[in-house]
Amino acid sequence: MPWPHWIRHRSRQQGLVGLPARPAPTPAPAPGATPALEAPLLQVDGVSIDYRTHERVVRATHRVSFDVHAGDRFVLLGASGCGKSTLLKAVAGFIAPSEGEIRLQGRAVTQPGPDRVVVFQEFDQLPPWKTVRENVAFPLLASRTCGRAEAAERAALYLEKVGLSRFADVHPHQLSGGMKQRVAIARALAMQPQVLLMDEPFAALDALTRRRMQEELLGLWDEFRFTLIFVTHSIEEALVVGNRIAILSPHPGRLRAEINSHAFGLHSLGGSALQATARRIHGLLFEGQDTPSAEPAATPVPGSVEADAAALARGPRPAAGHSALPFRISV
């Protein structure tokens, strides 16, 4: 389903945002009729991905299946090396599955396209010779999505939405890491893709900037209700950003469980319910692994699954009867 709520233009008389006309209301079903279920926007069906070398074949993901509906904030969560970024690249069309199929609106994904835009983790994803404004407008022009006038309008609009209008004419080297990521997000949103793909976009930011970026992303989603697939290895970030979470097992990545996380958000930080859920998720992530040895463990990377687990271990245990969650365990 295309994005019907994206802002298309500004009123030339008043400088106000123009909204598209509302679609006609869907007629109510006949009495006694079974309401039709909305088809998923994106389907990942039994996808395995292999990396081939001269010596062997390494399997990154094994028969992963899930559906993403329009407006979902779908999170792929797992420890480093579980194949979640590889899976995201396959959805983007950069990697072909070795087994299974990825379908967008029922059509097989075989190559990259403007209907799927990726925001990467690296800060150097912006061409350094282009200004901020030119960086946002460039993919619109390169893909011939729109003409120069509309590209300029979209660039101005989305830079305003991410709070960077005053920096439209500077170059990326003059921006902080968080500001560069805002430009990358504005560039992706200006393309109005059917699915926005984000590959650990805040992992390299400091803790305060990372929290601010999470707030801004959720604010943008509240306004535009875009469909998001978000990769992270932080349990807390998955619960805050996502409304559905797919938990991938360690290498090779298999879908271990899906969690409905609608109840959580930035307001849940520090709460006992979020901590209890995070402990359950950690158990699912590392289920079946050997108990660690008595040797002292290395200091975990901040924001990682391991760091979240260490922090949660110091918190209060969940009360009896409050550990059950709406899991859908995969076979």
Automatic annotation (TrEMBL):
Domain ABC transporter: 42-275
Protein name per Swiss-Prot or TrEMBL: ABC transporter
Species assigned in the record: Acidovorax carolinensis
The keyword Cell inner membrane is assigned to this record: no
Entry keyword annotation includes Transport: yes
CDD domains: ABC_NrtD_SsuB_transporters (cd03293)
A GO molecular-function annotation: ATP hydrolysis activity
InterPro entries: AAA+_ATPase, ABC_transporter-like_ATP-bd, ABC_transporter-like_CS, ABC_transporter_ATP-bind, P-loop_NTPase
Family: Belongs to the ABC transporter superfamily.
Keywords assigned by UniProt, alphabetized: ATP-binding, Cell membrane, Membrane, Nucleotide-binding, Transport
Domain of life: Bacteria
